[in-house]
């Protein structure tokens, strides 16, 4: 069972009409709803399960510019600016802190790879810098492992995944947004070639705009509309410890482990590289588009063939709006964690830093990450369906970029001037002959 997000009380009335419907109650969907509500635009957020029950509460909690694809940098810079004021904006604790983030370098080859990323980031004038071996050791007191150096960004930080999206959702409610949990959207209705409404399991809502922030479910939802969204799911497993004292405050990544301090005094720990990938029908459907990612990340992928193939094969890809949908049959993706990976990460961390030897594991969990072929999100209008905006495929980078992505999605659905140039996030890049490539770190 996954971590328990802070609770959000659903609104009881099912509105007959609104300006915009947001589908999905993770950090992207709630941030979009808050942006719209603050602008005086009526918005209903529909979540098939509960707010932040999936990957938005299950991620590492890192809020980073460092190591990102350069296409994401303008948006994460804006998102970090929003995170700095998020407690005041929501009137709640989100756990945001500028703790700094460090990527350790085991050898000179890793130093060179990080220096290459710095060249990509140089135009953005970040405070990221390379550390010497001595500077890296100073930042990690008590660490037994000696590193060749590190890539460090002091202004990067952390926040609490179980708190952030719920805080944003409650703030959106306070500004007039309607939050409907356990209310799946079955599909979209059109009139004159444009969106005219959505049909939920509870009834119809008239609207002119829809933002799909459905995470790992987005491909399935789009397929029923005849929209091709190249997307696969990747599972990452995490553990948290009971509170510990006297250990590093800086979020730290190494190949065999990654850790960050939690607001409760414990630590979130995960394998620094490895993710689990199930072979499913979509694996073959999008094999060609994902080949660059497969070649680049092959060593970090644990590929399996299991019951997930048949589960996806037997999941309907088409349905009528008066039928029960897959979103109602399975409300929350709650995969069993790979405990071998999490326990191995903790043991590697203990071997590197003896101070973690007394760590008591409080919980293991896993989450399903929505990935695109180039590991860059889709935040984009759909030309064939005016009024429909997709905001998904954040590829494990979504928590930190969430507030900025919500702002951009709100701009696009209202035809406002976008906060950043959205062209890098267009859906059409996967079909217009653009080169699919991965740039950046983890």
TrEMBL record:
GO molecular function: oxidoreductase activity
Gene3D superfamilies the record matches: D-Amino Acid Oxidase, subunit A, domain 2 (3.30.9.10), FAD/NAD(P)-binding domain (3.50.50.60)
Keyword Endoplasmic reticulum annotated: no
E.C. number: 1.-.-.-
Annotated ranges, domain FAD dependent oxidoreductase: 19-412
One Pfam family in the UniProt entry: DAO
Family annotation (SUPFAM superfamilies): FAD/NAD(P)-binding domain (SSF51905)
Alphabetical UniProt keywords: Oxidoreductase
EC top class, as a word: oxidoreductase
InterPro entries with a match to the protein in the record: FAD-dep_OxRdtase, FAD/NAD-bd_sf
Family: Belongs to the DadA oxidoreductase family.
Protein's name in the database: FAD-binding oxidoreductase
Originating species: Dongia sedimenti
